[in-house]
Automatic annotation (TrEMBL):
The keyword Repeat applies. This is Coronin. Keywords: Actin-binding, Coiled coil, Repeat, WD repeat. WD repeats lie at residues 163-205, 213-255, 256-297. Residues 1-54 are annotated as: Disordered. InterPro entries: Coronin, DUF1899, WD40/YVTN_repeat-like_dom_sf, WD40_repeat_CS, WD40_repeat_dom_sf, WD40_rpt. Residues 36-53 have a biased composition (Basic and acidic residues). Residues 529-556 form a coiled coil. One of its GO terms (molecular function) is actin filament binding. Residues 90-154 form the DUF1899 domain. PROSITE patterns: WD_REPEATS_1, WD_REPEATS_2, WD_REPEATS_REGION.
Amino acid sequence: MATTSWSSGRLSGRMGEKGEKRKGGRGPPAISASGRRRESLEGRTNMREKEAEQTQAACLDLKGKEGGGWMFAEGPQCLCVDAGKMSWRPTYRSSKFRNVYGKVGNREHCFDGFPITKNVHDNHFCAVNSKFLAVVTESAGGGSFIVVPVSQSGRLDSHCPKVCGHQGNVLDIKWNPFFENIIASCSEDTSVRVWEIPEGGLRRNMTEAVLELYGHSRRVGVIEWHPTSSGILFSAGYDYKILIWNLEIGEPVKMIDCHTDVILSMSFNTDGSLLATSCKDKKLRVIEPRSGAVLQQASCKNHRVNRVVFLGNMKRLVTTGVSRWNTRQIALWDQEDLSMPIVEEDIDGLSGLLFPFYDADTHMLYLAGKGDGNIRYFEITTEKPYFQYLTEFRSPAPQKGLGVMPKHGLDVGACEVFRFYKLVTLKGLIEPISMIVPRRSDTYQEDIYPMTAGTEPALTASEWLSGINRDPVLISLKEGYQQPNQLAFKAPVKEKKSMVVNGIDLLENVPPRTENELLRVFFRQQDELRRLKEELTTKDVRIRQLELELNNLKNVSPNNV
């Protein structure tokens, strides 16, 4: 006869023969469903313990031969074997930025009532520095943008003055990193213009630019300032060419024509000695800008590149694009070998363009999708997994573009490491979004604020063109930023050039390229003709009056004179 014992509702003994009953009594009660589940769970646990004992014995045998411990890693968890102990535990990389969070500015710190442009060109349409905020606006009869002091938040006046000198839509604007009152703009009218904003902002509409630069045969889509030289500006047009402008003389000094399609983006390394470009021909290029030589080139078939950015002094590039399955992804490249990306990582399946923003001081990469409401951020490392995902900022309002505040304009006391200015077209709103590292101490946090690039240029335009390379002049944010000296931007004094063909000045009258431009030119000419006809009519009346007066004088007798 078999013996039975019951503990916690579980049969722990054995029965003899199948169906055997105790003498003089009933058989064992049926086991409940919860008891069967517990028994199955304990069986699986026993199997895992046996497997662990076998693995431990094998590792101890290896340890006895070699001496030491091992860690077998696979995925987010790892198996640690050391001195006869084995444990499963998750491993996390220690990072001071893993708790960074995004904070949207209060309503009184937002900018409201901006007629943000509805142009579908893939640019940010926003530029910001420590003094001013500039936003491309919707306008008729040419392109314009609004410039307001960054401290004057709130609702925009409906009669706010604009910068409205372009004859076509404005496609890109960028502040000079060394002269905070100088801003460059490019437009569909094939021109690049440099403007000087007065202290305190605009008081009336500005139509006269400091410099008007003509050299492209088609519209200009992208402009970039050189990171270390004070007078060098790059422009990329739809004529597949990049022009390097020397603003000290107001002339182009170099043309880079190695592209076979529209240039989508440009990015410089830290000292400005290398230029990376992404192109619509699905190629990524690293160029020596002074000579125009292509040092590296990648044909991106599986990863169609849209945007590229240099990772500071890490000798790496990050690109955003679309995979062969039409999913958004990012890729990491070695700038000295573009034959194959180091790593590719899929982001999601949305269709909006991904804009990358890299902070060289914190080694953080921010990804913001056009039309999305979220901003993902990663920490870049030189070892695997390279992209360390931190978290993401979520918002229900879609973004059309983002402006980035320079480092010397951040709030160091609040541990702010990055600040975006988000364009919300549907609301006409511009929201500041601060990326903050949570710290309890109120003292200056030196570990998150290393020496950073300031507003003092390291080179003049002529020095850079002669072949000299220098790193940016660094400043500390500990005592608050103070500009070392007040530099003044001096535009060259040039005689106005003209190119007259059949009595038409081609530089003054840029031929229209679209139907809308043609209609604007037509109606402008009709208004001019109407005004001239009225002026002729007025002059005819005046001529007749003078003729009558002259006849009267002739008919007067000499005695009455």
